[in-house]
């Protein structure tokens, strides 16, 4: 599948305006890339800086004598926006992306809660997600991390829109600092083709190792960007868009780390919709607004499996139950979300 490139404008652009793609930003400074690959430093017109990496924009070159920064005049409608939100603020990662790779590793031990939250945000934004489990060489730690992901690897029966049973999320075994890249590295490379992939993950999992492996001149590009943005060296301030090849059909986006993936934009009443393994059971509850926490005859609670660790059934013909860890996460996140949103 090739990612559709933005169609050239049907009508000529108004005088002095150019099409471009936001490839990174720092505060109110943006780097806009034109179709030919040239990069331009721009700032948003007006007070607000609403553009995010991945936005298609129209920008204007500086007029003579008005410095060397262009201005962003218009942001094209987005097909999606991936962001996190807490009580205080909203942090956008990127717009118009095709998929999200959540990279975790055998070490440091990952937080299943942060993983689940990022996956919920991806579902709510309508963006497919995959999980990469790196550091396959770390035997026992890897085995235990792999086991902790059993609920994510479980095969779900075909749903309304899918024709074949599929894992809840693809989980790829990676060893990014080895020449071979890990058992599923070829699969990862195939999945990156023709798509724009946002890479998300906590510190120390191998994000830079992945980016440098895929884009050999990434470090040089980063240095050049820092210079242009006048930001400190080695500071990843926002997401950065890297093309995988000259043809510019595939891209990976390196994103800044985070402590807590805030889900304040998610309606708690709709939470099950964004957890597909739970959503499958939720339709059978007696009350249409069942919270699946205390109601009698709750089909979701009845479907929760016993606590003993269960390996994902490779060919579950019938509906598998809900992993207790996933139900515990559901309850925890439900309680955390603000109440009374429309
Ligand atoms: N054992 C092992 N170590 C790896 C592997 N891949 C990367 N590492 C190491 O893990 C450490 C962290 O890798 P980075 O690529 O810097 O991780 P990062 O996610 O970019 O981390 P930050 O820079 O802190 O955001 C480095 O010491 C890497 O050499 C792997 O497959 N196995
Ligand atoms: Zn219920």
TrEMBL record:
<keyword id="KW-0862">Zinc</keyword>
<keyword id="KW-0378">Hydrolase</keyword>
<dbReference type="GO" id="GO:0046872">
    <property type="term" value="F:metal ion binding"/>
</dbReference>
<comment type="similarity">
    <text>Belongs to the TRAFAC class YlqF/YawG GTPase family. RsgA subfamily.</text>
</comment>
<feature type="domain" description="CP-type G">
    <location>
        <begin position="85"/>
        <end position="261"/>
    </location>
</feature>
<dbReference type="GO" id="GO:0019843">
    <property type="term" value="F:rRNA binding"/>
</dbReference>
<feature type="domain" description="EngC GTPase">
    <location>
        <begin position="95"/>
        <end position="259"/>
    </location>
</feature>
<keyword id="KW-0963">Cytoplasm</keyword>
<feature type="binding site">
    <location>
        <position position="292"/>
    </location>
    <ligand>
        <name>Zn(2+)</name>
    </ligand>
</feature>
<feature type="binding site">
    <location>
        <position position="285"/>
    </location>
    <ligand>
        <name>Zn(2+)</name>
    </ligand>
</feature>
<dbReference type="InterPro" id="IPR031944">
    <property type="entry name" value="RsgA_N"/>
</dbReference>
<dbReference type="GO" id="GO:0005525">
    <property type="term" value="F:GTP binding"/>
</dbReference>
<feature type="binding site">
    <location>
        <begin position="134"/>
        <end position="137"/>
    </location>
    <ligand>
        <name>GTP</name>
    </ligand>
</feature>
<dbReference type="InterPro" id="IPR012340">
    <property type="entry name" value="NA-bd_OB-fold"/>
</dbReference>
<protein>
    <recommendedName>
        <fullName>Small ribosomal subunit biogenesis GTPase RsgA</fullName>
        <ecNumber>3.6.1.-</ecNumber>
    </recommendedName>
</protein>
<dbReference type="InterPro" id="IPR027417">
    <property type="entry name" value="P-loop_NTPase"/>
</dbReference>
<keyword id="KW-0479">Metal-binding</keyword>
<comment type="subunit">
    <text>Monomer. Associates with 30S ribosomal subunit, binds 16S rRNA.</text>
</comment>
<keyword id="KW-0694">RNA-binding</keyword>
<dbReference type="InterPro" id="IPR010914">
    <property type="entry name" value="RsgA_GTPase_dom"/>
</dbReference>
<feature type="binding site">
    <location>
        <begin position="201"/>
        <end position="209"/>
    </location>
    <ligand>
        <name>GTP</name>
    </ligand>
</feature>
<dbReference type="Pfam" id="PF03193">
    <property type="entry name" value="RsgA_GTPase"/>
</dbReference>
<keyword id="KW-0342">GTP-binding</keyword>
<keyword id="KW-0699">rRNA-binding</keyword>
<feature type="binding site">
    <location>
        <position position="290"/>
    </location>
    <ligand>
        <name>Zn(2+)</name>
    </ligand>
</feature>
<dbReference type="GO" id="GO:0005737">
    <property type="term" value="C:cytoplasm"/>
</dbReference>
<dbReference type="InterPro" id="IPR004881">
    <property type="entry name" value="Ribosome_biogen_GTPase_RsgA"/>
</dbReference>
<dbReference type="GO" id="GO:0003924">
    <property type="term" value="F:GTPase activity"/>
</dbReference>
<keyword id="KW-0547">Nucleotide-binding</keyword>
<comment type="function">
    <text>One of several proteins that assist in the late maturation steps of the functional core of the 30S ribosomal subunit. Helps release RbfA from mature subunits. May play a role in the assembly of ribosomal proteins into the subunit. Circularly permuted GTPase that catalyzes slow GTP hydrolysis, GTPase activity is stimulated by the 30S ribosomal subunit.</text>
</comment>
<dbReference type="GO" id="GO:0042274">
    <property type="term" value="P:ribosomal small subunit biogenesis"/>
</dbReference>
<keyword id="KW-0690">Ribosome biogenesis</keyword>
<dbReference type="InterPro" id="IPR030378">
    <property type="entry name" value="G_CP_dom"/>
</dbReference>
<feature type="binding site">
    <location>
        <position position="298"/>
    </location>
    <ligand>
        <name>Zn(2+)</name>
    </ligand>
</feature>
């Amino acid at each position: 599948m090739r990612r559709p490139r933005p169609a050239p404008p049907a009508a000529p652009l108004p005088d002095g305006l150019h099409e471009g793609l936001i490839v990174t930003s720092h505060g109110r400074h943006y780097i806009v890339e034109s179709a030919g690959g040239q990069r331009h430093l721009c700032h948003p017109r007006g007070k607000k800086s609403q553009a995010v990496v991945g936005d298609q924009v129209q920008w204007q070159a500086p007029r003579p004598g008005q410095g060397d920064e262009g201005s962003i005049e218009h942001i094209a409608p987005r097909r999606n926006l991936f962001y996190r939100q807490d009580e205080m603020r909203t942090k956008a990662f990127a717009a118009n992306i095709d998929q999200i790779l959540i990279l975790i590793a055998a070490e440091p031990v990952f937080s299943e809660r942060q993983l689940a939250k990022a996956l919920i945000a991806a579902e709510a934004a309508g963006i497919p997600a995959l999980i990469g489990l790196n550091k396959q060489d770390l035997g026992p730690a890897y085995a235990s991390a792999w086991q902790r992901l059993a609920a994510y690897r479980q095969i779900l029966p075909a749903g309304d829109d899918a024709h074949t049973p599929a894992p809840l999320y693809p989980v790829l075994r990676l060893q990014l600092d080895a020449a071979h890249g890990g058992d599923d590295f070829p699969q990862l490379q195939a999945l990156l083709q023709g798509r724009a992939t946002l890479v998300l993950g906590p510190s120390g999992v191998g994000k830079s190792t992945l980016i440098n492996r895929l884009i050999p001149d990434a470090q040089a590009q980063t240095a050049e960007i820092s210079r242009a943005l006048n930001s400190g060296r080695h500071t990843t301030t926002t997401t950065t868009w890297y093309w995988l090849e000259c043809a510019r059909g595939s891209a990976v986006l390196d994103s800044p780390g985070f402590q807590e993936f805030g889900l304040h934009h998610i309606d708690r009443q709709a939470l099950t919709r964004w957890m597909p393994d739970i959503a499958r059971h939720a339709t059978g509850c007696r009350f249409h607004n069942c919270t699946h926490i205390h109601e009698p005859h709750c089909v979701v609670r009845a479907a929760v499996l016993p606590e003993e660790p269960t390996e994902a059934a490779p060919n579950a013909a019938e509906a598998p139950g809900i992993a207790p860890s996933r139900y515990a996460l559901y309850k925890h996140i439900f309680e955390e979300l603000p109440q009374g949103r429309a």
